[in-house]
């Protein structure tokens, strides 16, 4: 594709009213409110411009785009002038040409003339416009005042800021405010002294800049330029693909020189991101070619042995023979697999197919078990489908937004920026979170209510909100009568109306003032379109499923499901966690969320796959660990998942992995799980594979290979080879054939094909005969299950309680710059922002314990102990501490417990009773694990090459 997408100069108008005008003698009809510049561009007339771009509101500062309007006065800017019925516009004549050349001459008189050596040469709008207006000489010398000696800022690890090349067009400033919503950039000074300033004239790295790349994308010169372009030169071709970080699913253009990725630029036609990005997707792609990548298959008999590099054939054969031997000795149920939410739908589908058809059991699970399995359970029970109800753009029609247990600006930053845009337009915000997340108060955004609840009391809070809505008559009775099951509604209504669920009764439990709960409930129920967005702060609890059900109850009771601006919206964590669930990664469900016990469903798959399938659900991940320690589960195939770092009660997980006879890991690096492996199969990054991801809004998007797999095989080819070696034949020639099979077998995907994805760009499932173009909004006329089902949500306190020995509650979360277990982001320059996990602690708790900011502290729970550096912060409430889990030696999951959700076994990461005290050395576990890891690294470095004896 062309590297430079067409830029219409100003955003599109959403008006349905047409306006017809004449531009340079050509008739054009466009929506009312369209700018003259955009109308001209729509018929191929490109008016010169510098300050205008179609991702930003028109500004009118450069004056290059002036036009002449018949009967009008002066020469108005075409970017800020809307079209009018019957208007006659001239975009080029001698007068306009002379004016534009004079303007360009002034720009160039204070600009370095180093075009041949400039990093933007060949992709510079200033250079292009100088040529477009016919500028051939500059009459003004450099003798007077200028900005040519301005100091270059190289502090940001990904881009430089060169003020000498700045034309003060304000595009970067406007991108930071309008698109990203951080307001980190400003124009300082006036007139000749005007300059772009990060925050209070700070270096970029020290400023409030979040490195989303919007300013770099908007800059028309080399003022803001990616260091990768400076070092490698301008890219020469581009391939559209999908980001492999969070569940937003941003579309990017991988801009290439040969097989090298020079930069990733957000794709304007991306349905999820519309040309915006965050620091991870935009810049943190270097892990794909990091020196730590393992590109040769390896095997060893015991985890105390050095690795031996082998051919693909030997590695696959060795893994298959060991799995067969385990099943012969211990039975068919003694092995299983774990799919990845990092991999494509097609790859995940093949892993669960291998387990069911190749191993002959249902022992397959996925990381969704430990993050969003309560979403699947709770939404399926109430609404009838295990997914969110809206597309991301729906938030722009919301009037009231309730964010509970989610931190969009850190965890889902591109969607977070879109939400902030709507909030700046006037939507009201309610935040329910134990911590002061950025949304509570940031530039031009402030929550009406911050319900600062105690960790573990989500259900109590949701019931209190429901109590107010029911007892104050704020229900949408007509909606409920038409759309919902009335018997279940009556039971729920009676339950939540009980005085024990009132905000006053629950105040002591939740820690949230009753009047704040009442105010928030009234606002949500009566403020117009009410949307709920939630994340892992809802699901990762012993009552995670109950809270999801409670949220669905709230939405149904107030009529807030089935149209734009409302809904129940889980913010999925990983890039394909929705897809991994869709593809049948749970032990009780085949693709499409159909239970393995259903004969008709099994029959469909048995006919396609040519095998008899088990009718009993298999083992969940926690059950696999327990069975391993019991000696009945001894073989595990793990594709793209690091359970040793990400799963709770680390010591229990490591003991289980150590007890297994064959662990096969397919991944990019020797991650923490691979240190316990007997076979290592090189994985492929998202840049090396073809397939699809499904994001949090059910959007299926293409992932396109931009370079050959470094290990020689794409992940789907590895799984296929292993299945063939196990004796179950798979013979796909291309991932599109896998998708065709998925479409044949999965109702939500019946209409999906690569051809349709190429045509439409992306599709939101369900896509089938009833919805051939996809389904942006779910449950429009009726719920998928028929009538919406209310469920009683009894609050049951977690078994994890504070005590005199463990008086604080630890909760966990993510940070913007790092991602999940950090295997990717720790191998990029993102470590500049978050080189280590820290423990956030309130000043009162720190003072009581003699803890200073930056000091080492021991965090001890009933499960274990670890040591982190303290971050004294008022973001936390007294009695609660917080940490992230992006670094393996932090050991955050050493101290989390084995408590889990009653319905799905999703771990209770968010509530752990701990004590925090000053220490002087790492914990015993950290010391032991550091020693183990160094040994494993040494065994890796000692690996024998292919063919060695």
Structure write-up:
The chain is α/β, with parallel strands linked by helices. The chain has 30 helices and 36 strands. The strands form ten sheets. Strands 13-12-27-26-25-14-15 form a seven-stranded mixed sheet, covered by helices on one side. The chain has a six-stranded mixed barrel with strand order 31-35-32-34-33-36. Strands 20-17-16-21-22 form a five-stranded parallel sheet. The longest helix has 19 residues, at 312-330. It starts with 17 loop residues before the first strand and ends in an 8-residue tail after the last helix.
User: Which regions are unreliable across 5 or more consecutive residues at pLDDT < 50?
Assistant: none
- Kindly estimate the percentage of residues that lie in beta strands according to DSSP: 15-25%
Tally of helical segments: 30
Q: How many strand elements?
A: 36
Largest beta sheet: what is the strand line-up? 13-12-27-26-25-14-15
Query: Oligomeric state of the chains?
Result: single chain
Average pLDDT score: 94
Helix content: 25-40%
Backbone CA Rg? 29 Å
Structural class by secondary-structure content: alpha/beta
First-last Cα distance: 49 Å
Largest sheet: 7 strands, mixed
